[in-house]
Q: What sequence folds into this?
């Protein structure tokens, strides 16, 4: 099966039919990819570097121009921005840019640039139109072609792409509001790892480039019909001053967007490039016949390589539903959430590739290669939660929780492959003799869970402090997960402004008390003009390899980012 196929050939496996940059924001196996001569790769590498430097010079030259809308007339306006990012990964090698090859591309990242256009229109007093579109060059992608991003593929990352992030029509009649089209659902009150922020899918191509809050900024809009109704109260003291009710019908499920194998942000716990060896004795009374000989024992060596496939998400026959209610009592805001929909999980099938069989000392020995195909699956789950926020003197306090039924949690695929080496060796021999089919390895498993978090923030003169604690409790028994059954994450943020708020220094951090993984990101941002911001930053990650953040060894980086609004 070719990597670009969404459906298996006849008689195949039968299961195939899962970053935006910053504040807005198909993989083909080597054997199937067209050969690219080193000279072409060299020219391509220099092209990305040269284009990035040229755009930097152009933007700095225009940066002193006053900020204004790109176009506006009689209730219509078009605003835009350009986001340029140059990253130096921790394992940076110059030849990855000058003369890249398949062997040395792992960990490399070309410069990225994104044009963002925001269009607003009010053709009538009761109708509002909105669209947000992104076109750019994503340096984290391996596939060099261009495409329009769709809403049914989990693996579709390309270096050049057009993305329709939001595009909807909204009408208001008194307290009733109706919104139809591609839209986002900004749920939850916490800045990072908000338990109720589960409706919008995410692009996970580079989720931390904008700090921990970049996880939320990486979300994109989904097709939905949303109804909202606002109730105001100015007479009854016991009733909230303002109440908003929202309900949404989501006709199709849109999966999240994963990077592809080999890219910097593809999770290492979802791949296995490994060699395992083992031996097994067949059950009593069974035997394998090969070339006229009978064998009661097998042995072998299996080299496994990971690749990705797509699968079709649920369609119009299985919609999703979401509801949100919020009330304001003086200085206290209360919110409630409900979601009945789908989530994207990953599974793997280990399929035999090339092999040789030979008898050695009465044992049937196999030397084989197998493809471990990682593919998405889509499972129903429910989530119900609440949130509250209020000021306590000079301190702002926020908190939320969510009870999730059948939420998906990840296992370490590399460990699963190694743990089943004997079974795999026996399985590959059986496959070679057409006795058994591919071996399925569950990569994500469902479990009930309670997610919660609280945060407190305080501003003093030019200082800003925030401290957040997140708690994850998996309520059903599961073993071998990359997340602890009970986990506490500490998330501090400190920010300081200088020179009349033109320079901002920020430090974001995270530490898991149980899993011992951590995150650290210092940022220095300079408001060069009203419409230009230049940011210097660094990113450091650490922890055991089989944990949520520790699975990205070597992804430390330094970066320069320029955002120019026009």
A:
């Amino acid at each position: 099966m070719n990597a670009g196929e969404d459906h298996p050939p006849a008689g195949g496996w039968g299961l195939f039919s899962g970053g935006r940059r910053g504040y807005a924001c198909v993989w083909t196996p080597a054997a199937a990819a067209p050969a690219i001569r080193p000279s072409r790769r060299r020219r391509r590498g220099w092209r990305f570097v040269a284009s990035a430097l040229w755009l930097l010079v152009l933007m700095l030259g225009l940066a002193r121009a006053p900020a204004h809308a790109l176009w506006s007339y009689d209730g219509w306006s078009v605003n835009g921005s350009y986001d340029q990012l140059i990253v130096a990964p921790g394992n940076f090698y110059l030849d990855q840019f000058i003369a890249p090859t398949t062997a040395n591309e792992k960990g490399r990242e070309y410069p990225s640039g994104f044009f963002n256009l925001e269009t607003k229109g009010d053709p009538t007093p009761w109708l509002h139109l909105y669209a947000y579109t992104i076109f750019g060059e994503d340096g984290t992608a391996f596939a060099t072609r261009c495409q329009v991003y769709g809403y049914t593929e989990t693996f579709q990352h390309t270096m050049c792409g057009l993305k329709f992030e939001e595009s909807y029509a909204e009408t208001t009649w008194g307290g009733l509001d109706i919104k139809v089209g591609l839209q986002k659902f900004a749920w939850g009150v916490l800045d990072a790892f908000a338990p109720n922020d589960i409706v919008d899918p995410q692009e996970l191509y580079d989720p931390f480039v904008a700090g921990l809050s970049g996880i939320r900024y990486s979300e994109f809009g989904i097709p939905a019909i949303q109804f909202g109704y606002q109730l105001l109260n100015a007479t009854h003291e016991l009733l909230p001053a303002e109440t908003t009710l929202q309900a949404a019908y989501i006709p199709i499920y849109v999966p999240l967007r994963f990077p592809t194998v080999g890219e910097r942000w593809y999770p290492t716990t979802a791949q296995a490039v490994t060699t395992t060896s083992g031996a097994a004795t067949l059950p009593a009374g069974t035997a394998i016949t090969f070339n006229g000989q009978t064998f009661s024992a097998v042995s072998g060596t299996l080299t496994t390589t990971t690749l990705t496939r797509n699968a079709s998400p649920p369609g119009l026959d299985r919609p999703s539903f979401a509801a949100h209610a919020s009330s304001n009592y003086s200085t206290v805001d209360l919110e409630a959430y409900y979601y009945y929909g789908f989530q994207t999980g990953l599974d793997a099938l280990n399929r035999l590739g090339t092999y040789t069989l030979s008898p050695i000392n009465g044992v049937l020995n196999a030397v084989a290669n197998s493809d471990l195909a990682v593919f998405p699956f889509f499972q129903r789950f429910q989530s119900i939660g609440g949130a509250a926020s209020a000021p306590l003197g000079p301190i702002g306090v926020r908190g939320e929780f969510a009870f999730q039924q059948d939420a998906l949690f990840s296992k370490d695929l590399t460990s699963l492959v190694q743990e089943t080496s004997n079974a795999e060796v026996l399985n590959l021999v059986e496959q070679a003799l057409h006795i058994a089919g591919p071996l399925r390895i569950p990569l994500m498993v469902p479990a009930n869970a309670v997610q919660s978090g609280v945060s407190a923030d305080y501003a003093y003169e030019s200082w800003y402090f925030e401290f957040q604690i997140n708690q994850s409790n998996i309520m059903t028994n599961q073993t071998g997960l990359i997340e602890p059954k009970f986990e506490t994450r500490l998330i501090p943020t400190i920010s300081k402004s200088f020179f009349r708020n033109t320079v901002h220094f920020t430090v974001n951090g995270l530490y898991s008390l149980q899993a011992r993984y951590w995150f650290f990101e210092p940022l220095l941002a300079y408001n060069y003009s009203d419409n230009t911001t230049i940011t210097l930053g660094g990113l450091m990650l650490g922890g055991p390899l089989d944990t949520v953040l520790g699975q990205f060894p070597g992804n430390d980086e330094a970066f320069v980012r320029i955002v120019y609004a026009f």
User: Anything to note?
Assistant: The mean pLDDT is 82.
